[in-house]
């Protein structure tokens, strides 16, 4: 009971220190509000409002029909462009797509000579170039089949493919991005808060005061973990309710209670990692330099930005040792697919095992740093 009382009081001391740290409080507010809303609301992965120009050398009804088939919100209204300005417009980046309809295009099509339409794509606009070119190709193919009366024949295919998008019927990229931003921010804050808390103790000399008290390294470490865990879990819950569900309108199908419990388990592992890095550093700037090569791979290779299946096999095995990989999988399964414990228990066990290993290593390193 004495040990539990020590852990509780030390944790309350951590919360008091955080309450007076205006910079960290401001960072917490930013990480769980602005840093989630702006990417989710402003980052549109698909083609949206792409600039288009058309060089119409045919001046036929069919060329005008092709221009009119490119509609918002995917495309802006196509702008007429003289042929001699095509290269200049592409070089200046004024248009993402410039379409060139050649002379006698309609006549050649009706005569069965298979004319071609040139679509010039500014590939520096990577987010829209690939998908936009595919959109234009499918739109033009549909319009040309309708114009030549072959649409019915093309529709009579031997196999009918039916696509159904579950959990996100409209394929809204912002829905997934909002949750991934929360996961990424949890990772950053778990490592940064605990690491800076320990370094603040050392730099202010209060860690030496703690060592003269009847306290163990385990008690000091657990106090820092539960206090920072409480702060991050509380901020996560508020962010999900206010920013994700209310402001962004993302329907979360799963249990928030289960997700918050999983978040606490993930924080147990990631905060231990933050303490381990803090024991290696001698100052806050050193800790920041150490944290960068740890946090960035955890964010980019955990499966949130790039699917694990698209990575090399050896890298997939390596990332299975990262708690962030299992947390991303658990987050998507619980919040979007309404998965229960009976479905996600393998990732839960893996996350708990990784957390215990990280905690044991961090505790051993923390004891060694205190002894020295």
TrEMBL record:
One of its GO terms (molecular function) is ABC-type transporter activity. Residues 142-369 form the ABC transmembrane type-2 domain. Keywords: Cell membrane, Membrane, Transmembrane, Transmembrane helix, Transport. The chain crosses the membrane at residues 21-40, 175-199, 211-240, 252-280, 287-308, 348-366. Its main location: membrane. It holds the Pfam family ABC2_membrane_3. It is a multi-pass membrane protein. InterPro entries: ABC-2_transporter_component (IPR051449), ABC2_TM (IPR013525), ABC2_TM_bact-type (IPR047817). It is found in: Cell membrane. Belongs to the ABC-2 integral membrane protein family. This is ABC transporter permease.
């Amino acid at each position: 009971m004495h040990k539990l009382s020590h852990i509780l009081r030390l944790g309350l001391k951590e919360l008091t220190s955080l309450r007076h740290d205006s910079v960290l409080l401001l960072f917490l507010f930013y990480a769980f509000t602005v840093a989630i809303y702006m990417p989710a609301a402003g980052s549109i992965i698909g083609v949206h409002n792409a600039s288009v120009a058309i060089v119409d050398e045919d001046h036929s009804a069919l060329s005008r029909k092709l221009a009119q088939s490119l509609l918002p919100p995917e495309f802006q209204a196509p702008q007429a462009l003289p042929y001699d300005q095509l290269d200049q417009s592409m070089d200046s980046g004024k248009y993402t797509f410039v379409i060139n309809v050649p002379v006698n295009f309609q006549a050649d099509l009706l005569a069965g000579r298979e004319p071609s339409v040139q679509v010039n794509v500014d590939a520096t606009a990577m987010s829209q170039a690939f998908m936009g070119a595919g959109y234009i190709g499918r739109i033009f193919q549909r319009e040309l089949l309708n114009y030549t009366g072959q649409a019915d024949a093309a529709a009579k295919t031997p196999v009918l493919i039916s696509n159904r998008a579950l959990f996100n019927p409209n394929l809204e990229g912002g829905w997934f991005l909002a949750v991934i931003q929360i996961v990424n921010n949890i990772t950053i804050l778990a490592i940064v808060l605990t690491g800076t808390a320990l370094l603040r103790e050392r730099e202010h000399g209060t860690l030496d005061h703690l060592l003269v008290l009847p306290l163990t390294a385990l008690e000091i470490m657990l106090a820092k973990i539960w206090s920072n865990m409480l702060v991050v879990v509380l901020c996560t819950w508020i962010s999900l309710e206010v920013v994700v569900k209310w402001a962004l309108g993302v329907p979360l199908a799963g249990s928030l209670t289960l997700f918050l419990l999983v978040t606490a388990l993930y924080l147990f592992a990631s905060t231990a990692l933050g303490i381990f890095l803090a024991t290696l550093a001698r100052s806050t700037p050193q800790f920041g330099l150490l944290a960068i090569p740890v946090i960035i791979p955890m964010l980019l290779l955990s499966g949130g930005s790039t699917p694990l299946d698209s990575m090399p096999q050896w890298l997939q095995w390596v990332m299975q040792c990262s708690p962030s990989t299992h947390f991303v999988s658990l987050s998507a399964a619980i919040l979007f697919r309404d998965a229960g414990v009976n479905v996600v228990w393998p990732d839960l066990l893996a996350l708990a095992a990784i957390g215990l290993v990280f905690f044991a290593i961090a505790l051993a390193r923390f004891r060694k740093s205190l002894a020295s």
